[in-house]
Write a structure and sequence with these properties.
glutathione-specific gamma-glutamylcyclotransferase, EC 4.3.2.7, Hypothetical upf0131 protein ytfp, alpha+beta, five-stranded antiparallel β-sheet
Length: 173
């Protein structure tokens, strides 16, 4: 069983990993297009979390994780509990390309018809929301900074996240 991570799964997979590789998923882009009303915000003051948003011609670099043998059922149950908390994500199997060749991976993509979908927000608006929001798993800014730092450590460039990380640092001081 393989899982594609593009946001917090990169730095907090939460399941035993046998091996991993940098992987590219075509037709989707990483975007702060989901209002977070649980983990990084509240119903009254939503934060933003990353989701895969469909976009022809786009691609997203992330990590493909092979789940350790014997942990597949538990991993699937825990991922569903974590990722499908509000039904804004849809569970999909996608094909990614990585050093191990093409892989079929489980991943979670945004439902653009869901009330939490907010695609198209400009970066300055995103930065303002991320700088102030906080949910049950802590400040929204920590989620951004962890993701941006781990992408940089992996050598994965994401200019929007890099800009947001710098802007939110300015707004948070």
């Amino acid at each position: 069983m393989w899982v594609f991570g593009y946001g917090s799964l990169i730095w907090n997979p939460g399941f035993p990993v046998a091996r991993q590789c940098v992987a590219r998923l075509d037709g989707w882009h990483r975007s702060f297009c989901m209002r977070s009303i649980h983990y990084r915000g509240t119903v009254e003051d939503p934060g933003l979390v990353l989701a895969l948003d469909a976009q022809p011609g786009a691609s997203c670099l992330g990590l493909a994780f092979e789940v350790a043998a014997g942990a597949e059922d538990r991993t699937l149950a825990e991922l569903r509990e974590r990722e499908l908390i509000s039904s804004a994500y849809l569970e999909h199997t996608v094909q990614v390309d990585c050093a191990f060749g093409p892989l079929d991976c489980l991943t979670y993509v945004i439902d653009p018809g869901h009330a939490q979908y907010c695609g198209g927000l400009d970066l300055e608006t995103q930065a303002g929301i991320i700088a102030r929001a906080c949910g049950e798993r802590g400040p929204n800014r920590d989620y951004l900074w962890n993701t941006a730092a781990h992408l940089a450590d992996l050598g994965i460039a994401d200019p929007d996240l890099e800009w947001l990380a710098a802007r939110v640092r300015t707004l948070s001081t």
